[in-house]
Amino acid sequence: MAIEQPQHPRQHNGKKPSVRSRHNEPAALGDLGDNPSAVQQAADSDSGISPVVIVVLKVALVVFIAMSVAAQVWALPLVARRSARDAPQYAPYATGYLLAVIAALACFEIGLVAVWKLASLSGRGIVFTHDSLIWVDIIIACVSIAAIIALALFVHTAFIAHLKPLAVPLGALLVALGLFAMLLLIIVLRALLVSATAQRDELQAVI
Prior knowledge:
Elements: H1 24-34, H2 36-45, H3 51-86, H4 91-123, H5 130-160, H6 167-206
């Protein structure tokens, strides 16, 4: 009488089950850690922002900076000269107003450069770092200075120079209020960035 040989567990149903080593996953992680390019690619994939968006943003920033510089060098001096010629009673204030607006535009340009740096950090997937806070602080400083300049222009044009028409001081006031509102928004976003950076640091420490 023939004795049926028991089937080996690996030959059950004619299939050989796959065996996964417990060391496979740590080894893979070790290989990733030994490969800086792989780590960088993993960081880039976690950035969550398309490279196309980063490029479009940087192109827009370049356009804005170019327009601001053109206004500082050509448009604003031309407007100041024409205003002093058409309204001689306000001519003594033309140079001071011109310098104030040029300084505000300089703050605007520096803020755009800081936004450029933040976009670059975000494109590399390292926006939640302490380096980003430096550029955010620069943006806050630029917006604060520009808001103070706009508020000073409103006070001077409305209560000292009594500039007419009223659209000029009211425009300066609206710009100041808008900048202060933007400042509060950026401060809130900075607090969120600080919280997210701290949570990421804690997570990395645990891992």
